[in-house]
Design goal:
GO terms for molecular function: diaminopimelate decarboxylase activity; pyridoxal phosphate binding. It catalyses: meso-2,6-diaminopimelate + H(+) = L-lysine + CO2. The protein has helices spanning about 20-30, 40-55, 70-80, 90-100, 115-125, 135-145, 185-195, 215-235, 265-280, 295, 330-335, 425-430; strands at about 5-10, 15, 20, 35, 60-65, 85, 105-110, 130, 150-160, 180, 200-205, 245, 285-290, 300-315, 315-320, 340-345, 355-360, 365-375, 380-385, 405-410, 415-420. By secondary structure, it is α/β, with parallel strands linked by helices. Helix 2 (about 40-55) packs parallel to helix 9, helix 7 (about 185-195) packs across helix 8 (about 215-235) and helix 8 packs parallel to helix 9 (about 265-280). The structure holds ligand LLP.
């Protein structure tokens, strides 16, 4: 009935998440409110971890892409699930460390890591640094020399696969700000330079072919291209890369139009390809890393809002205005992303209304969605926007000096606050 399996309707006709009544949550914590089902997050972590165990003999590491949703508590959950994390800024590293997450299980990404960020990563012993460009390589080598360190590095490679659409194409992705292209030879050149450097330890290659991908084939092709790259690096430099990081990007169900494949089918096919290519090319089977973000956290989250106004414009449309909007979920404004919505206090009623869900910012484009099917609602009703766990809180802002909502985790039928709602004092904290 719902896009995520952790959602249901109770006897009062209220939407529940992880068995907890969302109306109780709205009453207890206020709205707007992000709610994350921790049990489902953990289950999703295990899906990926188990698939590496089953199909790849456990010789890999799942690294949760924490850009999808970052706060101290999520790093504690990931540490408890014994997986790694992908971090993309000093801010994410700092948050993870503050939560007690071990630096050696972090993969540090970014196309323009500053010297300060690299210094911090080295100082704290970040396990793998994914080097994006030659400037960074030189910067890192020099900083590592200064600190007497020799970090493990992977090179970010563009495998030339565009998987952003439902079909995918093999070439044409040279124009990306991320990484070294294989087809121009720069990826091989980078490996030559890196392997000759004294203060970095070149251990692997990384690629990430896109996000919200439903097809398995582009991932399999990426694995094949990357194994070819590892073989070329070995031939050229004598160094056999032992880490193959295939990034994230696994699609989730936002609406009934989305049909994600079971994640273990992905690993089944990718593992087979990696092993086949290793045998064919005379390489060792590499240690594999995956970086799912959205697929771990996305389906586990919802956002609750209170409707403040209903505005019917005859023959045009009906707006329901909520107490949040693009400040807590900018994805419709940015990408016209589609979401499923429910009136959480009338979840047992038929969805016989069609509305535009509008935020409260002074901006016409501040919408969560248009043409949305929902139960008939008015001021005072609670709207739940589903599958908002990924890239919502993470991309929230204070535009219009709107405070950021609180985040609540539910587990075993209980709720707990993990991020406090911002206060007005928070808004002026840095103002002089
Ligand atoms: N690894 C790397 C290197 C990445 O750049 C990303 C996402 C991931 C892993 C995780 O991808 P996922 O499994 O979450 O698809 N703000 C956009 C998504 C941007 C994704 C950026 N990179 C959105 O709201 O859809």
């Amino acid at each position: 009935m719902f896009v995520s399996k952790n959602l249901a309707v109770n006897q009062q006709g209220h939407l529940t998440i992880g068995g907890v009544d969302t109306i109780d949550l709205a009453n207890e914590y206020g709205t707007p409110l992000y709610v994350v089902d921790e049990d489902l997050v953990r289950e999703n972590c295990r899906l990926f971890k188990d698939s590496i165990d089953r199909y790849y003999g456990g010789r890999g590491l799942v690294c949760y892409a924490s850009k999808a949703f970052c706060c101290k508590e999520i790093y504690r959950v990931m540490e408890d699930e014994q997986i790694g994390v992908d971090v993309v800024s000093i801010g994410e590293i700092y948050t993870a460390l503050a939560a007690g997450f071990p630096a050696e299980k972090m993969c540090f990404h970014g196309n323009n890591k500053t010297a300060g960020e690299l210094y911090y990563a080295l100082e704290n012993g970040v396990g793998r640094i994914i080097v994006d460009n030659l400037n960074e390589l030189e910067r890192l080598n020099a900083l590592a020399a200064e600190q007497g360190k020799r970090p493990n590095i992977l090179l970010r490679v563009k495998p030339g696969i565009d998987a952003h659409t439902h079909s995918f194409i093999r070439t044409g992705q040279i124009d990306s700000k991320f990484g070294f292209a294989i087809e121009t030879g720069e990826a091989l050149e980078a490996a030559k330079e890196a392997s000759a450097m004294e203060h970095v330890n070149l251990v692997g290659a990384h690629c990430h072919i896109g996000s919200q991908i439903f097809d398995i084939d582009p991932f399999v092709l990426a694995a094949e291209v990357m194994m070819g790259y590892i073989a070329a690096v070995k031939k050229e430099t004598g160094v056999e890369l032992t880490d193959l990081n295939l990034g994230g990007g696994f699609g989730i169900k936002y609406t009934d139009e989305d049909h994600p494949v079971p994640y273990d089918r992905y690993m089944e096919q990718v593992s087979a390809k990696v092993k086949e290519e290793a045998a064919r090319l005379g390489l060792k089977v590499p240690f594999i890393l995956l970086e799912p973000g959205r697929s771990i956290i996305g389906p586990a989250g919802i956002t609750l809002y209170t409707v403040g106004a209903r505005k019917e414009i005859p023959d045009i449309r009906t707006y329901l205005s909520i107490d949040g909007g693009m400040t807590d979920n900018p994805r419709y404004a940015l990408y016209q992303s589609k979401y499923d919505v429910v009136l959480a206090n009338k979840a047992n009623q038929p969805k016989d209304d069609i509305i535009t869900l509008a935020g409260k910012c002074c901006e016409s484009g501040d919408l969560i969605g248009e043409g949305l099917k929902i139960q008939r609602g008015d001021a005072g009703d609670i709207v739940a926007v589903l599958a908002t766990g990924a890239y919502n809180y993470a991309m929230s802002s204070n535009y219009n000096r709107v405070t950021k909502p609180a985040v609540v985790f539910v587990r075993n039928g209980q709720s707990r606050l993990v991020v406090k709602r911002e206060t007005l004092e928070d808004l002026v904290r840095n103002d002089l």
